[in-house]
Amino acid sequence: MAKKKTNTTKTTKPKVKAPRFKLSNQQKLVLGSFLMIAGVLLFIAFVSYFFTGNNDQSTLSEFTNKAVESDNWLNKLGAWVSDFFIYRGFGVASFIFAGLILLSGVFVLINGNKSKLFKHWFWSVLIIIWISILFGFFSEKWNVLGGTIGFEMNAYLQVYLGKIGTALLLFFGLIIYLAIRFRMTFDTFKNMFSAVKKDISDNLKDSKTNDDLIVPLDNDLSAEAEDIKSAFSLTIEESKPEETIIPVQKKEELKPTPKIVEQDEEQDMQMEVETVAEELSETDNLANKLVEDFGQFDPTLELKKYQFPSLDLLKKYESEGITINQEELEENKNRIVDTLNNYKIGISSIKATIGPTVTLYEIIPEAGVRISKIKNLEDDIALSLSALGIRIIAPIPGKGTIGIEVPNKNSTIVSMRSVIASQKFQKSEMFLPIALGKTISNETYVVDLAKMPHLLMAGATGQGKSVGLNAVLTSLLYKKHPAEVKFVLVDPKKVELTLFNKIERHYLAKLPDSEEAIITDNKKVINTLNSLCIEMDNRYELLKNALCRNIAEYNVKFKARKLNPNDGHQFLPYIVLVVDEFADLIMTAGKEVETPIARLAQLARAIGIHLIIATQRPSVNVITGIIKANFPARIAFRVTSKIDSRTILDGSGADQLIGRGDMLFTQGNEMIRIQCAFVDTPEVERITDFIGSQKAYPDAYLLPEYVGEESGTSLDVDISDRDVLFRDAAEIIVTAQQGSASLLQRKLKLGYNRAGRLIDQLEAAGIVGGFEGSKARQVLMPDLTALNQLLDNETS
Ligand SMILES: Nc1ncnc2c1ncn2[C@@H]1O[C@H](COP(=O)(O)OP(=O)(O)OP(=O)(O)O)[C@@H](O)[C@H]1O
């Protein structure tokens, strides 16, 4: 804690803070309901004023005299308030005040958008003034309607503008209001007018036709026929202009809203051009309305003030930036040329690209030289260049040249700061951007974890795996809000990821019953993985109901308020599962972890769960076929043998790396050599401190509850060993007809383990059915009578 404090004082300058009026939920309830009631009372008082206002005039001056009562339905206060608002204030327009106060109460209660409320107040006050002046205009007839303000303002305006001027000014005020508030245009009026005109003419026509069709029985038949004929012919003639279809020439005239295009006066013909706007479903309409009223759903709202870590928290290295050692370059070039010449390989040109740790020499061999010949001489060339970690790429994909990578004598550190600060990272629009480091041509390399969709990291000990993991996590922390991504961290070594404990309530996800968010116990990993599988199934269900194919589409739809939270929909954060020391896990838990990992790897990509697994031991029994098949994106740090390299990358190369963050990255096709960004423990500590010191969610992101199989083993529970709360628990479960441990936890206020044990005992007693994965257990007792019968039989 002390540390946190010093940190914040260091970074923030003293500044005077404006006092914040943030209401608690209870305060909101009190204030909201007070305002609503006040609004209703005002309304009642105002209505009453029109019946009792005259009688109450005399009682107003006697406000403090208890003996004098008012006729207003709210008695003295009602009389006084309505007199104040209606007589002395704005007249009938004061009713709008009552509405506004009621509306404010509703906004406070539902925690509505403040700027929306402010807008309502602003426009309503304007319309109140306008109405008041309008009625003030007719004050001679109805003097109460405009109130004193309306009357006085009218008198003032009429002195300067006269009656006509005032009337026109009022009309102009109305136009301004409609134009700005309702975005009305001249066309809107025109369309409205035409629509009304059409309605009237249709009605007239209908009535006329009907009238004409009523033929008096005693009339001459031929005359009737004539009448009817003329009546019809008339109708047809009249309807003709409307039905005439005129070819439309101008494309611009076709607007999505129905529009009437006037023809030349002489033709006296009207044509209605109607383009059918895309029909919106009811839910779309509702969503549009909600978005209009409240704006798009903002998942970051709960931590609105959250600040992303600044670049200053990352260290700046002196030795950054490539220094060109001309001598070294020349020397290496000569050696390469000489060595190749020794093997009778001629070179037509050679080019060097200097990277942070290695320099790439690109060679174009003379015509007729076989590439395989150069590839075969790899070891000989390496020997004559007497350098470790030479890698020959023959040919460089897409270039037709041969590459020889030679480590630099003095490598430079690629700092996390430089890659995070790069334009490429800062401007990336990826879902889960990761700044891995810099390529051989010194370009920052940024990839999207969401596209990978899972990452396998392997390398011998001490070659930069943990730094790599930290770089991945740091990248995400710099780019993603706590609402957008959650980490599930598995760290059997117990030391690598502990720093991330500080951001538990911001970024971590955990099982409901676990105390520590970072999982260090291998047994608990199995539960977490299975819980993630449940989360995956749940998310698929949500996606299916929302008719979305992936999490991105789903979240867009949710933000546009097209998905109803009452149907279980919610904004879904990405979940990144990081497993360090995967080999260790496989050794201790074997199939039990491999199965859920494989399931997640196969299916979780669409619903935003991504896996990063890291291992020191890249042997085939750890990185099995099924794992490999589902992890197309792989990072290999230096390994000791070609076999290990093959296991990770399906090819050699990782054995020729030079360590210290030098790595090969593949996403299934080409292999890219990257110098991993270096982020040191103190830097990670500063970042997690910075984030940890900010306001957090009440708890870590809770994963679905998973009842492990081990709890289902002790089914033969002795009746005498039953929990004292057994009967209560049974009654709760049977009454609710829902067999879930979390229900017991809530109702009986128990810990997860005890609730889990109770469920087992209930299963053993035949009250609930067996474990069914993500679903609640079936309740086998239909009602309390059946339950009591069962329990009584047991004891007798
Ligand atoms: N990207 C890098 N740039 C510079 N130096 C690095 C880089 N990555 C790692 N190193 C150096 O290598 C050392 C070991 O790295 P790291 O702890 O990441 O290895 P590891 O593979 O996780 O080892 P282990 O498997 O034993 O945990 C670091 O202390 C650091 O000095």
Task: Explain what you see.
Helix content is about 50%, strand content about 10%. It has about 800 residues and is an alpha/beta fold. β1 (about 260) and β2 (about 270-275) form a beta hairpin. Mean pLDDT is about 80; it is low at about 1-20 and about 210-265. It binds adenosine-5'-triphosphate. The site of adenosine-5'-triphosphate has 14 residues, from α15. Keywords: ATP-binding, Cell cycle, Cell division, Cell membrane, Chromosome partition, DNA-binding, Membrane, Nucleotide-binding, Transmembrane, Transmembrane helix. This is DNA translocase FtsK. One of its GO terms (molecular function) is DNA binding.
Layout: helices, strands, pairs:
Elements: H1 2-11, H2 25-56, H3 75-90, H4 94-110, H5 114-137, H6 143-181, H7 186-213, H8 221-243, E1 259-262, E2 270-273, H9 282-294, H10 326-342, E3 347-354, E4 358-365, H11 371-376, H12 378-384, E5 391-393, E6 402-407, H13 416-421, H14 423-426, E7 433-439, E8 444-448, E9 455-458, H15 465-479, E10 485-490, H16 504-507, E11 509-510, H17 522-545, H18 551-559, E12 574-579, H19 582-589, H20 591-603, E13 609-615, H21 625-630, E14 633-636, H22 642-649, E15 662-666, E16 671-676, H23 681-692, E17 701-702, H24 726-736, H25 741-748, H26 752-764, H27 784-795
Parallel strand pairs: 9-13, 9-14, 10-12, 11-17, 12-13
Antiparallel strand pairs: 1-2, 3-4, 4-6, 5-6, 7-8, 7-16, 14-15, 15-16
Helix pairs in contact: 1-23, 2-3, 2-4, 3-6, 4-5, 5-6, 7-8, 17-20, 24-25, 25-26
